[in-house]
Amino acid sequence: METLESELTCPICLELFEDPLLLPCAHSLCFNCAHRILVSHCATNESVESITAFQCPTCRHVITLSQRGLDGLKRNVTLQNIIDRFQKASVSGPNSPSETRRERAFDANTMTSAEKVLCQFCDQDPAQDAVKTCVTCEVSYCDDCLKATHPNKKPFTGHRLIEPIPDSHIRGLMCLEHEDEKQNLESNLTNLIKRNTELETLLAKLIQTCQHVEVNASRQEAKLTEECDLLIEIIQQRRQIIGTKIKEGKVMRLRKLAQQIANCKQCIERSASLISQAEHSLKENDHARFLQTAKNITERVSMATASSQVLIPEINLNDTFDTFALDFSREKKLLECLDYLTAPNPPTIREELCTASYDTITVHWTSDDEFSVVSYELQYTIFTGQANVVSLCNSADSWMIVPNIKQNHYTVHGLQSGTKYIFMVKAINQAGSRSSEPGKLKTNSQPFKLDPKSAHRKLKVSHDNLTVERDESSSKKSHTPERFTSQGSYGVAGNVFIDSGRHYWEVVISGST
């Protein structure tokens, strides 16, 4: 009965459900309690109908209401019928198993079977025997008075009715419940204090974080101002330098023009004097005197004309300063794109540009934003199958790493011949790094040649070290530690040393001569 009563109790009013609503989350709630929840969510001058959702007090599931509000939710008719039966059963017996246990424990320790309890509400004299004691009211009732004072409806359905006990024993029974309530209150209070302590710690961290945000934001703003001021200073310096070049070009041009102006004036003055003398000679009527002076004046005019062409060459009147061309379009674009630095885009391995030998591979790659890349990092490992590419990419232990590469290509030495490798390139700057897609490159197979120093005395190796033949007459070869010396078999070693992988060579054998 105790478990049943807890299941029939509303989590809000802690009383038996009254007109219970069946929520979508399968929990129940009194209609009036649900209405009070909506009222608590209303702001000032706001109607209850404006609230469209609330949380289930048991599981915190959000209940969305239709236009009908709470009337749109289903009534839990089955739960209401169970409550009605439970209330009828509670009138004729103890309210709950817990009460029965407390009463039995109390009766065993404090009461005797001979004690009788009289009704404390009767007007009769003598009073009738009590059939129930209400722990809530602390009064004992006979059957008639109980029916009159405790009808089967709220709030009396919540009263605790037990077997009749004397007044002196009710306080002791109440103490048992008070002790439980005290323990529950202390437990809840401890949990609340603990939670408040956690919230205070969290609040202190949040306040400290806010302070750090303020400090860091101010630091970043100051750094931004400093960097922008530095850019402005650089622009002003470059402006002054370029302006100085323009002024120097202006002074040089004006100096040349002033020299040409002075020469022109000097030539004009000399020419004016000769012109005046020539015109005066042309007006001479005496033929003898004219012939005497005309020849001299003609020579001087010719010399003056020639000297003016020498002193004043073709004048360059270019005043447009075409050689001082300004094009700041790239710089303007860079300034327009000023922003916080981000990690560079992943580079791309250009397999068509990569080259390989039997023990080296030169990897080439490109990057869309080379200006923001500080350095590259090359990673490579042996490729053993398509299925392990993902696992290799996620495992850093199996990779060989070449850091701090400044160019967009790198040659890896000391590789195994005829072996396929996986390469990845990482672009790095102050904001982070991004890696390229894996690229697969393979070293060439090492050419196989015979080693003359290891050939048996009876074997002769060709000049290209590719063929060998038996030569019984050749027995004057010097002895070396690596030479085959067996009497029963002849041999010669190759120059390829195999330490891993699978390799094969085709050998052509022909008859001996």
Your description of this structure?
Helix content is 41%, strand content 14%. The chain is built from nine helices and 19 strands. A hairpin with a 6-residue loop joins β3 and β4 (62-64). α4 (97-110) packs across α6 and α6 (167-282) runs antiparallel to α7. The termini are far apart.
Briefly say what this structure is:
Helix content is 41%, strand content 14%.
Features:
single chain; 513 residues; alpha+beta; five-stranded antiparallel sheet; four-stranded antiparallel sheet; 19 strands
Topology, pairings included?
Elements: H1 2-7, E1 20-22, E2 28-30, H2 31-41, E3 53-55, E4 62-64, E5 74-75, H3 77-91, H4 97-110, E6 132-134, E7 139-141, H5 143-149, E8 161-162, H6 167-282, H7 287-311, H8 329-336, E9 348-349, E10 355-356, E11 361-366, E12 375-382, H9 389-394, E13 400-405, E14 409-412, E15 420-429, E16 432-435, E17 439-442, E18 459-461, E19 468-470
Helix pairs in contact: 4-6, 6-7
